[in-house]
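hey can u check if this looks right to u? its 1506 residues, i copy pasted from the old doc so theres a chance i mangled smth
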Amino acid sequence: MSFCYDIQANKVAGGMDSRVIARRGFVVDVKSQNGMSVREGENPATLNESVDSHQAALDLAATQPFLMFDWFLTFTCNQAEHPGISHLHQHKESMDWTRSLDGYEKLPIAAKDEVKQSFEMAYGSTLGRCWMEVRKLWLEYITYSTTSVIGKVAHVFFRDEYQEKSGNLPHIHGLVALSKEDLKKEGMKELIYDLQKSAVCDLYPSTEIQRYIDEGLFESERDWHTTTAHAKEVLSHKHDQRCQRKIGEGDGPENYRCRKPHSVKGKTKPLEDELIPLHYEFSEACRNILQKAGLWDPPTPEAPNGTIRSNLLQPRRHMGKVHPAATCNMSPVIPEFFAITKSQQNAQILHGSNGVAKYVVKYIVKLDQGNRCVVWADAHSGAVMQAEHQFLHNTKITSSKKNEEKAFEKSRKKFHPVGRAIAFTEEQQQVLGYPEVMTTLEYVRIATKPFEHRRTTKVELDRKGKLKRPDKKKKAPRDSAAGERAADRENAPDAQSGFCLVQKIRRDKNMTRLMSPQQELMFGENFENGAYDKVTEFGLRPVELLQLFPNPGMYFRWFDIGGGMKKEQIESGLSESIVSCSWIDSLGRRVKLRMKALNEVHHHLTDDVIREDCSEDSWELRKHLLDMIECVKSGVCTRSQMTQCKQFVERGKGEHLPIPVFSSVTPHNPTPFLLHMMLMLGKYETELDIRMQPSIRHSLVKVKLIGNETTDEALELYSNQLVKMVVTKVLSVQPVSLRRLDDFVIMSKRLFDSVLLRNEIPITDIPPCTLTEMLNSVDVGLKSFWENKKKDQLSAIYQAMPDSINIPSKEEVMKCSKDEPVEWEPIDQFTKYDGQSDESYREQLRAVQIAVRSIIKYSFEFGPQATVFNKGNIIEGAPGSGKSHIILYLSLFAMSLGLRVMTTALMGVRANALGGIHLHRLFGLMSRKKGNPYRLAELALEKLNRKSQIQYLHAIRTMDVLIIDECGQLSAEQLSILDIILRKARSTDVPFGGVLILGTMDHTQLGAINGWPFLLSSHVLTDFVITQLSHSVRAHGDINLQRIQELTRMTPTKLLSKRGNEEESYEDEFKRLVKDNMVFASSWEDDVITADIQRMYARRIPAYEASSKYVESCQQKFIANNTQHSVSLSIDEQHIADSRADFVPATSDALISAINHAVREPRKLVFWSGGQYEATMNGEGFNQSQLLLMLEVPTQEMLALKTPIPLMAAPPGVNSIDLSNGIPSYESLITDKWKPVMVGHSIEQEIPYRGLVGRRQQYALCHIGSSTINKQMGNTIEGKCALEFTKDCCPWDKPQIVVGLSRTRRAQDIIIVGPQEFAVDKMWELITLRNQWTAYIDVLLSAHSVNGNGEDGVNQNMTLPYADVYPYRTCDIILPTDTSGYVYFLVSVRDFDRDYIGQTKNLAQRFNQHNSGQGAEGTADPYYRPYCVAAYICGLSHMEKVGRESLERKWKLYNKEAIRNGRRTIEHRILQGERVVQEYNADCLEEERIQLVVTIKRKMADMQEH
């Protein structure tokens, strides 16, 4: 069974995430290419096959307006007692089955145990099959029985759940809604309460024994005794792993808590049924808004906590009456059900609990992971796989799941593959296709998200990154059916709006009721593709129903929509008389009333439809429908009335009315939420009615959600009414917690006030609602995306370029294209800076020449005719050596050729400074996500293919040049992820998808935080050319600072080596230069530390504290000067970890300190005119780390309501602004390309700390003035900077010293805060630190850079002794996996004289082929296998196969020559490869040089003959 499950799961997973299979299972699917698919059910809206957690919770919550659940039931199976199962258990335990096994009694004990284990496995299979059938019968009995103790059932929802890895049977969770037709409210309540028992002593009173015997539940009084004793054993609560939730990150007992409330101790009145409120105290701002909306009354002597006027806002938990002396702490049960099943159960009452079922549904449908399995290889041999299983405590409870994940993150196993152990019975259920869910509920899902986010709207890009236009397909041939339809459309009276057969027939019959212009427009071009979502279908409903049924929820609930009709049927069905005209929608489908909907429709037509909203025809139809419904309800109809009923009423379909389920949209997304609310609650004919209004307020009036008065008092009243609608009608059908509801109420009120009172959201912000309009807007958006990014990057370039360089104008570059490039010579125009040394200029010019040749070569290789890959360029050099200047200059040249250039960086501040996009945003990378590069790339591509990310996918598919600033901060793994994403997104095997990559880096500055260093990537050897810069331009006027920076970048080996006898040591020289040229201050209070100095710290907390002091001083100054300002104090809250307790104000200083360390937003923000801030997250119109300037000071009232505040966002390349001459005006900032933005609160981040969880609510801003050293990387500080070197706070790594001492232009502008001797000694200690990669990186740069062995690099040794400098075992060396091309040298491990030289595109793949016997004939003999790679030539991406074969022939020829001369060792044969490389490099361009990589230790190779 497990083998079958594994095969089928892997087969189905061919095109989908395997985690979906684990949740839903799979079924046979004849439409699938694999013959199987993930279980969905034929109707996606039906839940009787599988369950999807988020959608199922939304579906079940949506049932609340239509029915209330009364019971939450849980059933388990006691194998020894449960009917239909107990006989199997008895047979197994009796051992009677051994009689059929000949010789069993003679077997040894070990053999008997093995037989028993085999029988147990076979028993499990039969047991699972039987339980599936028994469970089905039991659930059907509860659902359909007329004699069940709980009475007649209206609706049910039952779901199987497996928890443990063992082969236990699944238990069943269920929601039950009882039929309330025959009972009054109080009678129903009394009936339900009397059924529930909460103690063993209350289960079966002695007075009820005879009733149980009469009903067949007991055979005799003896059964009463045995059942009661059994109940005490089974139902009494016993603490174990399954009832515990994790409240801490450790493993001790203090980190776990039982989640079951005590049946006696948890009550105040044990002998009564109690409804205990779920405690939550709404915030003061929320209560004020609810009071205005009429949902909360202030406190009175009778109600000291105020009075809530909505049941939704005060959910209650039922606690049944129980004997006060009961000690069993039993979960409540229904005694009759226990008497039947004799198994553990739980029967919680939901009746009268004020919608608490809305919170229960999330628990029911959520998947409990149950366990975690970790797999890893033996650390010593690598040949043995090991697995470890860990029980997970109640991962359905969010807090418990988070703590389990945090504990795992701290373990050593977090880097290993992780999975979930699945029980045999669970595998069996999925393979055999047994449904996991049984329900009587039916749903119709109505997407009320923006049009481009709806499921039926396809927004896709082709392979070239262009938008696919299904609305502009090529015309079909005239002789085809589609061609005939196209011909009819061309001849239609209104071909411009799309051909509609129903409209044409209406016109041909001269009917007065025609489709409205809005309907014709919505029908439009979508007909060819059937791209209609439910809202659009609603807009295309029959003309006769437009006015009477103006809401999509009622339309899809009450009406049955049939299949398409033939032309003749449509012609005969349509009639001028509205009472005899059939209902046919614009798509040619017959529409009828559902029989079950007649009562609801009658109520609607009587109470909701008013005369003023209806035409004469519609009012006549209303009267006709009311008469028809009365006729049907009375059962007395004439023959003509019966005929009309058949015409308009569908009798045979569906026992239940479907429940409309709208999308889950919250006020977090203001514009989509407004659209969602109007579509869900409004009354309108088509969605276009909303868009055709001049403002959002007019749209709300049009859909009759508010009145048309415009006074401030009326608009305030409308705002409060809309808040009430949100609480009672929108959020009531979404499974949101009270805490989130609190936030949503505040957000909704703020949104409605801004729309109604200030008109801040224009109608143009509402998304389009037709396919053509939407595609046009997306198409325009994609084109403008590139134009805007080009403009941003050019702004950054021209901001940074000196006036001395003669470059094209910004306007010329903006207008140019690939067909019409700007003509200029970048090499001739590249001139020296004032004061720049000749050495610095020459090395910069060389880097420009190499990169310009690459760009020109790339520009000649567009289209499919390109056959070779153009190597990327990396400019590696010292801080201030001009890397950023060169890369901006090259970006300008590439753009002047019409190439699409995209700039990115791992640091948000650098991406902003260059006018680009943050790396994670551009490539869809997940932050803090672990996994292998292929999985992470898959997740990124999945994200990029979302409609909301289409502009970034478009950029990836259409970019020509990718600029990566400070690419050394990327890890080797991240570079591999980019390669995979670019290749997959652009559908090519060329490295990096053929994109030309230009980057800057300094290997001595800050590198990758996690993963291997960037330079260890095999792509660096094969796909990039490195040019080194060693002379500082930033410090060209200070020779001493240049020397200090040179010393900080030297290798530790060289710094610690001895110099000549007459020369001072490197240590003495470094310390002398630092002491003589830099300024030292004893503390931050020293007079040399002025307010305009940039303060840099090694860690975030000191930087945070410094910023806090700055804020305090500013506030005191403003108070003293009476300067207008306002203060935003953060709201810090806490609650116990892994609990459902509400958040309360934070009281733990330690937790607040942890929050300060984890988030960027400070506790206090002071706002004043001229204040400079930094964004802490990406937002609408601004990016993280972007400079923001305040002109208008927000009021304290705005801050209390968390209203977004206005600021001005700096243009790309601007990191500071001089306010010494006053605050610039709004107009002057706009002229300088600043743009107005609105900044709101940041996304709340929960911070765990020692059993508590904290969070902070604050604006997404922080003050500018101090920062970490890491953040200043790449920046030039024009003034002075100060670095702290004290025992409390000082750098801990060499890159921090390199960055910190290279930001200014002069050494005297660097201030060291702290004891001089300690600071200088600490600097020397850090710059002499080394790691395992130091030697490898130094050798790599020396061998791989075009000027690595000297300035000219002509005689450079292009051999990399990989194995000699690799810090780990030689066998762990990773071979490159790209397809750039290689010539390789293999040596037999068995016989060193046996070798092979070949060429290939993919070395790793070809190497595996050789060792598997599928390679060349020369390696086919199995005796000589395995082979190892002794060396390979790389950097051949610019060559065709012919070029690689030429190198291969030369190497073979030189080897034969060496062997004839007696030089037979492996080393001699490797030297011949060096000879091949040197000869090739002597006559080629610098960027086309090739390299030899030696992957065995040279000493071992040389010792072969000895």
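The radius of gyration is 38 Å.
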